Amino acid sequence: MDDNDQPAPPLPSTRTPGATRKGVETRARIIRGALEALESGGMETLTTRKIAASAGVKLATLHYYFDSKENLLLAVLEDLIADMAEAYRQDMSMPSDPEERIEALIRSMWRYVQRTRNKQLAQTELTLYALRTQGAEWLAARQYNAYIDFYCRLVFHGMGELTEEQRKIGTAIARFMLIGIDGLILQNFALHNNGDTNEGVETLVIATRDLLHRLRSEAGIQPG
Amino acid sequence: MDDNDQPAPPLPSTRTPGATRKGVETRARIIRGALEALESGGMETLTTRKIAASAGVKLATLHYYFDSKENLLLAVLEDLIADMAEAYRQDMSMPSDPEERIEALIRSMWRYVQRTRNKQLAQTELTLYALRTQGAEWLAARQYNAYIDFYCRLVFHGMGELTEEQRKIGTAIARFMLIGIDGLILQNFALHNNGDTNEGVETLVIATRDLLHRLRSEAGIQPG
DNA sequence: GTCTATAGCATGATAGAC
DNA sequence: GTCTATCATGCTATAGAC
């Protein structure tokens, strides 16, 4: 339930050599290149050659930083997790009432998803890849827990500490929001019919607000 | 909104030669073999050789029936769509009240998902593959529309005809259920924590019943 | 730290006997 | 309709100069 601050078995061998200024930059370029190539073509056509080309480095350079394609892909997923928080904070107005925050948060998420369609596809593909990769399943879990933790905090505070009860309720809310957004992403991709999917967003907003209502009154009637 | 009875551009070249009794059987074996191999290893490691081995045929035989790996994979996805209806009807008790049907249906779906974890992963991977494959996006749409149509009918009837209003409400319900189930699948896979995911199922049941309530009263107050 | 060059191999697909 | 044998290609990864 709370394996978010996991021991986190370090990614097997992401080399990260001397860590020169230049080295760090190149490593980042390769990760960005991999994400670009993944967004444009999908996992099926993703090769180390395309990644290297997309990053503007030679194939051997790629292997200097990542000893295998697998570890590079896992590093890309890690990077996506790290970037997530920044992305949402941008265009979100922040009401003080948690119920309105839920609504603002879902709408913000959905705007972000729609303007980064291919990135979402890429992230979904990478998550499935991690689930299929022996010893990398924890990465998928970490990704989800990071999202859950992030949404949970955003529902109740700017980013401060939470009471135990807020954490419990917020986690349930966050989980449900995430379920809805993931389902919406897939359905929107498959039907590429934004009109109908927007109905789904409205329904999700209402359902999540109702859930908060329910959890709060349950907590009020039967505290501890 | 209703491109379910699509012209359906025929799958480019699934050959299907003379269609001998034996030929049809072999074709089916290859499709089953592909699904098996996909379930056990994922798209990343899925090769025509593994498929052939898993189907008990030689590599050349596979290419006699499917002129390319791509068309084989799309045929597998088609097959999954066709099998879907059978799978759910099995263990579902069928109350007469639509609200209770929604609950029974969601629980039945969830049971099915849990006992076919790898099949669901495979189907998700194939759907993403179709979305990435030029000219195959319609297959993903067909898959979703088939599910939506199926759930819609199940909410209101055994399988008979629907009134226009039932169809409209049922479609919205079905879409939302599907959003929830897809999201639940991904979250359950990533966190592999069935206890917490079951909470999500309960929440989805309540939310979907509420949605039906809302749609019905809206229709009652403002018909046509 | 980045490159050129290449090893070593697995892949999707085909030719042609039976 | 199914097989054996093989092709051509593209893959990941490495060796070694600079």
From TrEMBL, chains A, B:
The entry's DNA-binding region feature spans 47-66
Annotated TM spans: none
Q: Which Pfam families match?
A: TetR_N (PF00440)
Map out region (Disordered) in residue numbers. Answer: 1-24
Is Ribonucleoprotein tagged as a keyword?
no
List the Gene Ontology MF annotations in alphabetical order.
DNA-binding transcription factor activity; transcription cis-regulatory region binding
InterPro entries attached here? Homeodomain-like_sf, HTH-type_TetR-like_transc_reg, HTH_TetR
Q: Which PROSITE patterns match?
A: HTH_TETR_2
Which keywords has UniProt assigned to this entry? DNA-binding, Transcription, Transcription regulation
Domain HTH tetR-type as annotated: residue spans: 24-84
**Organism domain of life:** Bacteria
**What protein am I looking at?**
Putative transcriptional regulator, TetR family protein
Q: Which organism is it from?
A: Ciceribacter naphthalenivorans
